[in-house]
Amino acid sequence: MTKPFRFGVVAPLGTDLPTWRDRVRRIADSGYSTLLAPDVPHLQPAPGPLLATAAALADLRVGAWVYASPLRPAWMTAWEAHSLSVLTEGRFEFGIGTGRPGIEDELRRLGLPVVSPRERLAEVRETIETLRDLDGPDRRTPVAMAVRGPKARALAAEVADTVTFAVLPHESRADVAQLAREVSALGDVELALGVPFIGETIAPFMAPPTTDLSALPADSLARLPNDPAAAAEEIQRRREEIGFSYFVFGADFAEAFAPVVAELAGR
Question: Suppose 60 and one of 28, 51, 168, 214 were both cysteines; which one would form an S-S bond, judging by CB atoms 3.0 to 4.6 Å apart?
Answer without folding.
Answer: 28
